[in-house]
Amino acid sequence: MVRLTNISFVNSGRRIEYSYTVGKEFRKYFSNSDCFYAEYDVDVSAVPYSIAVIPFLANIMPIAWFLDCQVEVNDVDSNFLDSLDQIRKELSKDWKEMPLRGDLIAEKITVNAFKGDKCLMLYSGGVDAAATYLRHRDKNPDLVTVLGADIPVHDDRQWGDVTKFVGLHPLTAQNRKYRIKSNLRDFYTFRVDLLVDIGWWGKVQHGLALLGITAPLSYVNQYKGIYFASSQADGFAWGSHPKIDDKVRWADLFCKNDGFELRRQQKIDLIVDWSRRHSSAITLRVCYSELNMGLNCGRCEKCYRTILGLILADADPNDFGFSVDGKIYAAIFWYFEKLRESSKNLVNLWKDIADKASSTDSFHVFSDPTTESEYVHRIASGEISFLLRNRLNESSRIPIVKFFLMNHFRSSYRLYNWLKTLPRSG
């Protein structure tokens, strides 16, 4: 079993450290530190145990369910305890071959209630977050960005870029902003990823984890609700979905997975439309590639996907945080011709782009209407989707082997990624 032995508030009450013990049979799934932490930019030392324990439980309970491991704590919020049971049932529908067991044992169950009327929104500056923000901007939500999720907890450079971007962007100037730092992806070992054939963060963890990590902040500010932008994942298990996120609750606070009814391209269309109607620029930050040395690298799949989405919405990507010209088409096709492995999610995402290219009456032209029209026609015909489907090999073990080697030789892999960012001579 896992036993939470202590919750301590350090660093002037801004950091919560969770000390725990782990049964011998489960030790290999957890890092050697035996400490989970969450660090805030406000004092959270007045948060009661039943709320303060939520970040820890939101991240460890899914692991316990997959391992059939019992977790013991002193106290827990009553609504959060109920929501965990509902979330486990929902996850069980996606993982029928793995019966999810493992109980949470609390010595005390506490009923909490908040008195505020403000809302919080998880905000990264990407397409999903920007669309949700625009849909709820009239509510003037507070914004929170999490280090340790998409950006590794040790990556101070990208974290500095993101917090500066969120803090200075004119679009969100009116909103109060917070930051949270947590080892929510580092307190367990790579063996947890192997429980689901790699991809634990995306397939299981991230919805409950990111909502739960905000619980202490929600107590300090007495929020009535939290908005979490939906992400698109069709036809396979995914850790953030209305059936999961909307069931997360503690005290009398609600959580809302927002924008699930919209496809990614529809969100881009919404952003472009809002920008035009308000004559206001919206800079997007979609990129977390190790190659990124600025706002967006402009060379990864996610950047290419967003750039094309903007072009097909008849918008200039240079007005939305990218630096590109008409050569982008050749770069995109070269990228996908060289790509070795695909996924169902990529196939679905690029099918949406092909559908948009087929139905649009106009698109942004950089300089050469004839050549660029030919590229758009190739996209509309499904050429990229075809390349992705051909690289979709569900029986391939290459990603798992690569993942295993990356984690066994983590220092060497980080050095390799760092060397790739260095400018080349000649």
Short description:
This protein has 426 residues and is α/β, with parallel strands linked by helices.
Named CATH architecture of the largest domain: 3-Layer(aba) Sandwich
Provide the succession of SSEs: EEEHHEHEEHEHEHHHEHEEHHHHHHHH
Structure class:
alpha/beta
- Terminal-residue CA separation: 57 Å
Please tell me what the overall shape is: globular
Could you name the ranges where pLDDT drops below 50 across 5 or more consecutive residues? 420-426
Mean pLDDT: 90
The neighbouring-strand order within the major sheet is 5-4-1-2-3-8-7-6-9-11-10
Number of helices, counting only DSSP H or I runs of 4 residues or more: 17
Keywords:
11 strands; single chain; Rossmann fold; 426 residues; 17 helices
What does this structure look like?
This protein is α/β, with parallel strands linked by helices. The protein contains 17 helices and eleven strands. The protein has helices spanning 49-52, 54-67, 78-94, 127-136, 156-168, 190-194, 200-212, 215-221, 242-245, 264-278, 301-312, 328-338, 344-359, 369-380, 383-390, 398-408, 410-420; strands at residues 2-10, 15-22, 35-40, 71-77, 104-110, 119-122, 142-147, 177-182, 225-229, 249-250, 253-258. An eleven-stranded mixed sheet has the order 5-4-1-2-3-8-7-6-9-11-10, sandwiched between helices. Residues 420-426 have low confidence and may be disordered.
